[in-house]
Design goal:
There is one protein chain. By secondary structure, the protein is α/β, with parallel strands linked by helices. It folds into two domains: 3-20 and 295-395, Aspartate Aminotransferase, domain 1 (Alpha-Beta Complex); 42-293, Type I PLP-dependent aspartate aminotransferase-like (Major domain) (Aspartate Aminotransferase, domain 2, 3-Layer(aba) Sandwich), CATH 3.40.640. 38% of the residues lie in helices and 15% in strands. It has helices at residues 29-38, 45-60, 71-84, 88-93, 115-120, 132-135, 144-150, 170-179, 197-203, 230-240, 278-293, 296-314, 344-353, 381-395; strands at residues 13-15, 64-68, 103-107, 124-128, 155-161, 184-187, 208-212, 224-228, 320-325, 331-336, 358-360, 369-372. It has a seven-stranded mixed sheet with strand order 2-8-7-6-5-3-4, sandwiched between helices. Helix 3 (71-84) crosses helix 10 (230-240) and helix 12 (296-314) runs parallel beside helix 14. It starts with 12 loop residues before the first strand and ends with a helix. The mean pLDDT is 97. Bound molecules: pyridoxal-5'-phosphate. Pyridoxal-5'-phosphate binds at residues 20, 70-72, 114, 161, 187, 189-190, 212, 214, 224.
């Protein structure tokens, strides 16, 4: 029984990982307790974000940081910061960017559905490169000189989506951008673990980096981090915070917002709808401390335990082979035999529609593979998943 019962909502088994669609993961009791404590008091939100900035700076090596309402909110705020800088008049006009630097350069093969957050700030995306390697026609993708050539006086930023397959290397992209004074904003939403990646992209030359708080960090579902250069974070903070005060009354902490440098008080900005509550900020910060404190091997072991148990419980399953993939986050792959009575997508659907409803990673069903991830599994889940999978593959035996 859970609170969801009283609203007629089913809970599900999440072997897909912390997807937004499946409500993210769940919170460690220590994080929950901190949020519940935070919710009992009122604080000054700018002061709280300044404390968050110190904490984020310490673990990322950035000059400053901000807690955002997710990595996508970080992309919107980061883009808005690159476009408006510290000019309150420009901030007030977004997303109307007429007359401003408003082009954001992206490698075509890095484009994705989260781009909406970048366009939402008023930016126009300028695509660079032809990802020949993905067409099966060739080996190349965008090259650094092409990004260099695309930079003009209208360029507000280069947005780089980090990932194992991302090309060209970030250091090279940051090199050409820096030479022309153009900031680089990295989407590193899902690039954790390892925790060392909290520092990596900034060390490689990024000016801003956005992480999800609700994925590996284990913070509240609608939380995230934006970290980077002090001026850009100040701009992002100004465009997110509620600023309904008189200029004389306004005393923001100088470490986050240096009032001296502003000609006037910005109005509510483009990021005001991405507001973050105090509980969320505290939850994210406590989760971040725990995430950084857990040794990488211990995290792998903890997650690998779920996968080992799922593997053991699935032993003897009909019409399928099992493969455990190693690495920082072990996963279990179920490869259906060609003669299996169900196609992989059908098996996924049946798992989802069953009771309990089980959600796995369906991104490889076209190759007959279903992947189970350990991040959001609860104690009894491995055996419950295995029982459902075995039952479905057997009962479909005709
Ligand atoms: C998950 C993800 C996002 C969005 O992160 P939220 O924290 O849910 O806003 C953005 N970009 C990439 C590449 C992601 O994987």
């Amino acid at each position: 029984m859970s609170i969801y019962d009283s609203f007629g909502v089913r809970t599900l088994i999440n072997a897909k990982g912390p997807s937004t669609r499946l409500s993210g993961g769940f919170l460690d009791p220590e994080v929950l307790a901190a949020m519940s404590d935070a919710a009992q008091y009122c604080v000054d939100m700018a002061e709280l974000q300044a404390a968050a900035s110190r904490e984020i700076a310490q673990v990322t090596g950035a000059e400053a940081g901000l807690v955002t309402a997710g990595a996508a909110a970080g992309l919107l705020l980061g883009t808005a910061a690159c476009i408006a800088g510290l000019d309150p008049a420009k901030m007030g006009r977004l997303p109307d960017t007429r007359g401003m630097k408003n082009e954001v350069i992206m490698v075509r093969s890095q484009r994705n559905f989260y781009d909406h957050a970048i366009r939402g700030a008023g930016a126009q995306i300028v695509e660079v490169g032809l990802p020949d390697r993905f067409a099966g026609a060739g080996v190349r993708d965008a090259e650094t000189w092409e990004i260099d050539a695309a930079i003009t006086e209208r360029t507000a930023a280069v947005v780089y989506v980090a990932g194992g397959a991302a090309q060209p290397p970030l250091q090279e992209v940051a090199g050409v951008a820096r030479a022309k004074n153009v900031p680089v904003l990295v989407d590193a939403a899902a690039q954790l673990p390892p925790a060392s990646n909290l520092r990596r992209f900034l060390a490689e030359g990024a000016d801003l980096v956005a992480f999800s708080g609700g994925k590996a960090i284990g913070g509240p579902q609608a939380s995230g981090i934006l970290a980077g250069k002090r001026d850009l974070i100040m701009s992002a903070a100004l465009q997110q915070l509620d600023l309904d005060v008189y200029w004389e009354q306004w005393a923001p902490p100088a470490s986050l917002i240096d009032k001296q440098r502003l000609p006037g008080l910005p109005q509510h900005g483009i990021g005001r709808p991405c507001k973050v509550g105090k509980e969320t900020i505290i939850g994210l910060l406590v989760a971040l401390r725990k995430f950084v404190a857990e040794p990488e091997e211990k995290r792998s072991q903890r997650l690998g335990n779920f996968i080992a148990r799922l593997h053991a419980a699935l032993e003897g399953v009909a019409h399928a082979q099992l493969h455990v993939t190693g690495g920082l986050v072990p996963k279990l792959e179920l490869h259906l035999s060609p003669e299996a009575p169900l196609k992989a997508l059908e098996l996924c659907l049946q798992l989802e529609q069953g009771n309990p409803s089980v959600h796995a990673d369906a991104s490889r069903v076209r190759s007959g593979v279903i992947v189970f991830h350990p991040w959001c599994l609860k104690e009894a889940d491995p055996e419950r998943i295995a029982a459902r999978v075995k039952q479905l593959l057997l009962s479909s035996d005709r």
